[in-house]
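Annex B. Sample input.
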Amino acid sequence: MQQVTLTRRLRGRMTAVRPGVLDAELRARGTRLETRLVFSDEDTFRGSGILDLGHGNSIAFRSAEDGTLTRSADRRLRHGTWVLAIVGGAGRFAGASGRITSNFVLSPDGEVTDEQVVVLFIDKEE
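Annex B, continued. Sample output.
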């Protein structure tokens, strides 16, 4: 079993698809994240997506628990947190499991900065 830890600061945009549904596309250092957030009320959401790490390596994820997106101390910004379960992967991350923690800030114009920590386990045959 191999443990891998990754940290990323991703930046991008969140756009409204319809009421209560947001799509996000974020990027950093050869990494692209695509996700959809579906809100159950004004502040609570669940979702899923793909973290593409390039060269055929990716991680699929979904909500491990409800995420929250609420007003921050800076009233212009919303602050979100989310814990994600890794539900699969491709390339180097085939058979991966683990968690991603996401701590992000959303501006009124849809700009997002997301600080992520990924801890995953890969079952490697020796």
